[in-house]
Every structure is written in C-alpha cells, then in structure tokens.
Amino acid sequence: MNMRGDFDDMPPDDRFAPPEAYEADDRRLDTGKNDNTRHAPAIAASQWQRTVPLPRQWLYGHHLQRKMLTGTVSPGGIGKSSLTLVDALSMACGRRLLRHWVHRPKGLRVWYWCGEDPIDEISRRLEAACIHYDIADQDIGGRLFVDSGRDQPIKIAAQGERGVMVARPVVDALVAQMKEREIDVFYVDPFITCHDVPENDNQAMNAVIDAWRDVANQANAAIELIHHTNKAGGGDSINDARGASAFRDGIRAGRVLAPMALEEGAQLGLDPAEVTRIFRSMDGAKANMSLRSGASSWFRMESVRLENGTDEYPDGDSIGVCTAWTPPNAFEGITLNDLARVQSAIEARETPPAEKSTNYDWVGYVVAEVLGFDVGEPGSTQKNRTSDQARDRRRVSEMIATWQRSDALRTEPMLSKRDGREYRVIVVGEPAGADVAQMQPQSPHSSAEGVRSAE
Prior knowledge:
This protein is α/β, with parallel strands linked by helices. It has 2 domains: about 55-325, Rossmann fold, CATH 3.40.50.300; about 335-455, no CATH class. Helix content is about 30%, strand content about 20%. It has helices spanning about 5-10, 80-95, 120-135, 135-140, 170-180, 200-220, 245-250, 260-265, 270-275, 335-345, 365-370, 385-405, and strands spanning about 20-25, 60, 65, 70-75, 110-115, 145-150, 155-160, 165, 185-190, 195, 220-230, 255-260, 280-285, 295-305, 320-325, 410-415, 420-430, 450-455. The strands form 4 sheets. Strands 6-5-9-11-4-12-13-14-15 form a 9-stranded mixed sheet. A 4-stranded mixed sheet has the order 1-8-7-10. β13 and β14 (about 295-305) form a beta hairpin. The model is unreliable at about 1-15, about 25-35, about 290-295 and about 435-455 (pLDDT under 50).
C-alpha cells in the first residue's frame, strides 16, 4: 500500500502530521547519472586521546540509561503495561517498588505514552497501583506525565514513495517537550503504535530506531520501547521480539517477559488459577552496557478494587497491579533442630532409607514423618497424589538435595537383600550444628569403605 498516497487522501486532521512533515530517510547514496544524485557529506576523522570519562548514567537499576534505548519484549495480556506503570511510579517517587533501584531518591521525571488505551484506562491502572503501594500525590511530586495516543498520536515514521519517511517535526517536538519538562525517562507502549512502517523490513525499522535514538540523545533521556513477542516466542530470548532484527539490535538493554507455565506451577503446588497471575522477566536478555545476568525476576498480578462504583455500575472496577513475587522457599520455617531430628530418625533405622523417590523406602518418607509433611503413600504415583501432596513432595525433595550438597546427608551404595543388586541409600553426614553450609561435598565412600550389605 502506498502510504504517501494514503496521507494525501486523508481528510484534514490536526492530530496527525501533514505528509510534508515526513522526510525521506534514504541511506543509499546514488552513483547514478541523473540530476537527483545525492552527494556524500563531508566526513572528518576525530583524533582520540586518553581521558577519564564520566560514569554511565544509570537511572533505574541497570535497565535504563540516559541517551540509550531500552526494550521490554512481552506477549500480550500478562501484565507488561502494569509492570511498566509501576516502574514509572517507582522512579517518580524515588522508591524501590519492584526489583530495580532508583538512581535519584528524590525521584525522576517520567513521561508514559500509551498508543492503545484511552487516558481513563491508564488512570485506572495507575490509581490501583497507588492504592496498593500507598502512594500519595505528594510522593509523586508532579514528576509523572501520562498521555494517550488516542488524544495525542505520535507517528515518528511512515512508509512513503521514496522509502521510509521520518517525521522530523515530531522528533523536534518530542525533544522540545522533553527538554522543557526535564524528562528523564520516556515510555512508548506499545512500540508498534509509534510508526507506520513494515515491521519485518530491517531498513525501515532501522530508521524508526534511529529516530528514537536521536530523541534520546538530544533530550538526554532514557527511552524504553515496549514491544510484543512473535507468535512462536517462548520468552527465553530477546530474539523472541516481533518483526525485524533491527529492534533487538538497536536497543542497548532489554528484558523478556513470559507467563509461568502450568507445569512450573504444578511443581510448586500452585493452583492453575494462581499460575495465570504470575509471570517472569528474563533480566539482561540483552545487555550491551552491563554484565548479562540471565537471571529471572518473578511478578504476580494482584487484584485491587478501586471502590469507584456508581448507580449504573455498583461493583466498580477491580484492576490488576504488578507486584514482586518470590517462589516458595523449601526451607521456610525449617531450623537446624529440624535437621537434627531428621538425622536422628535416619540413624535410628535398622536399614538406611533409599535415595530414589520411586523406592518404597525413600528417605523422603522419613523426612515427611518427622517434619509433618504429606508426600503421599509409598508407591503412590503422580496421578493419584493431591496438589498439596505434590507440593510437599517437591519441598521435601529440595530439602534432601540441599542437605546432600552441604554434607548433612550422604549417599552410599548398598546391596539389596532381595536380589543382591546395588542401590543407593542415605546416611547421616556432618551432624546438625556443625557449619554444614560451608562444608564441601565428600566422596560417597568417605565414611565407609566398600559396599554396605543390608542385614
């Protein structure tokens, strides 16, 4: 479709830049023999000398940096906009609400632009977040600016007859407003709404990325582009970003969001309805300016009532708010005294318990009996265990593995009385009270030579 023709045929609309505002962004220099040949500008090499440069100007953890583009890549509907808005509130208030620290405790000046939702919907999400995090107007201090593309569209580039047309007046207006308001961070949510170029065209997308990089550089601000994943994306790589590679190549830092898988939730003993509220962020999925962590941060969507009911809609709204979430800890409430009790129970047995969880004499049954967990009956299968039993079984397994790594429990070979075959059993290692966390795992034969035989 000829986008330039579309512009010419559109009725007058003050919300959009006129067609002449879009300048061609043609990087190919003609070597042709016609009157329209473009001449290369003068280029001069700049001599470099050693100096001590200023440190990088991080604004929000190692995620947002002045004069740089950052990206968040996410499938729709899991909470990316709520995460972005809570990030924005965190920076405006100078408070650490989620995972990242705020560079300026007095707060940063943040401008959030959403190209999809009306301002009322954005305000509902922000109000719900303020209720949840107990944020007052004076905490924000007038440092948060919010606009909707429905009222104030931003089209930084479009496809024209001569290629990509960059709207230089839009770039200039953005820079001027950001300088006037002293904006530190600008959000574009979602990225696709700020341009009208083919997403899969690398040359076109390069022009869009260059335009935003120009804004970031001139305004001395960090810009984050919120982008969608492709249909096959699993949330494990920045390569899951939709469209051309120019997006992921152009940003300097990036994170990838993905929902928790039902299988992951089941292993943690979570109800499927609870699992749908939880998503993760692969932090540092791209990290040109800091070490790539590869770590995941977990978030949960918390439901918050606005208490905004009317006669027509008496129930009002319940809005999802992004909150930090930590997976259950297997050792919550477990003490060294509990470990000592487990060790005593193992030592009191005539035959050491088996290491394998499929064995009827699994050590996990000993641990569960001592600590009061329900891991199901010996010989039970996954199909006939309840979700609570599956959760306790996973927790007990994690405790056993940790105690083995710290040498509180050790593995040794034993011969079966029934058929003479060798299998692995669990015996007591370093007694509870010793600094088992600092002990290095020892050989399975360090406390006994050869192979035990069941009596």
